[in-house]
């Protein structure tokens, strides 16, 4: 009997994405699976039920959760919903089991084979499955659009009959995937763009997108391409120079996040107070506490004349393309263990072994 795959309808407030598109459903069916999609699962991302049916899926209601062998989601189901899943079923998504003891307990009590995709090793082979990167790209793009909307000024230079308008000065803090996308987007909008990261090797990436690398004179270069911890003296010097630089910046986009840990505090309250009135800070790291001390997750506030926005779940704002990328990531991961209509887990494969939760040693 073919394995039964169920695409869940997201229940988290404001979540518009979906874990499979008609394109990836067709591929799952081609791999021999019986695919069911909860009614309305893709509607907020522009994928109607009929499109899934045309791709070979069956439309299902909540009762299908108790029969499914493999369930695909974006955000984790609530603990009460996990308790309704089939004993020993597999669950793939951005599950963050360590973030909620009730969720972790529910997963373990049902013997769920969980694959939190945020645990996926960051290797070359895993790039096609890397949900953190694909969703961060959308988040970086949306963060700059929010900044442009909030800013009381043009981003590009304009020459008008009323005189010349100088371009906005935009600083992007953090040069990971989200930061690089933010730099590219701000540059396309015509701003004068700088990028800052504690890793000096990001200079080339920032400059390749047309940005200028902000060198604060303190290098955190460590071994193996990782940043090292700054000394107290180095950090104080870095903070002093950054505070001075921010006085001339119009827009700051903060993107420095560390998976599974609180976001590092980079922009202090004193720095915000030193910025020009009318300046804007968009803190993409708000979901994990924010890079700015003044950030209030989920809110847009004014602090001493500076607008500070802490938007949440930015990737969901671009639900169509975010879902397309996420669904392809998920399918590429599932293809590691779904073959000929059956599930088969090769625990010698590090992508499966290191993503699995709980790890075998911790199981039971």
From TrEMBL:
Its EC number is 7.1.1.1. InterPro entries: Ala_DH/PNT_CS2 (IPR008143), AlaDH/PNT_N (IPR007886), AlaDH/PNT_NAD(H)-bd (IPR007698), NAD(P)-bd_dom_sf (IPR036291). It catalyses: NAD(+) + NADPH + H(+)(in) = NADH + NADP(+) + H(+)(out). Residues 6-139 form the Alanine dehydrogenase/pyridine nucleotide transhydrogenase N-terminal domain. It is an enzyme of class 7 (translocase). Gene3D superfamilies: NAD(P)-binding Rossmann-like Domain. One of its GO terms (molecular function) is proton-translocating NAD(P)+ transhydrogenase activity. Keywords: NAD, NADP, Nucleotide-binding, Translocase. Residues 148-310 form the Alanine dehydrogenase/pyridine nucleotide transhydrogenase NAD(H)-binding domain. Pfam families: AlaDh_PNT_C (PF01262), AlaDh_PNT_N (PF05222). One of its GO terms (biological process) is NADPH regeneration. One of its GO terms (cellular component) is plasma membrane. SUPFAM superfamilies: Formate/glycerate dehydrogenase catalytic domain-like, NAD(P)-binding Rossmann-fold domains. The transhydrogenation between NADH and NADP is coupled to respiration and ATP hydrolysis and functions as a proton pump across the membrane. Belongs to the AlaDH/PNT family. This is proton-translocating NAD(P)(+) transhydrogenase.
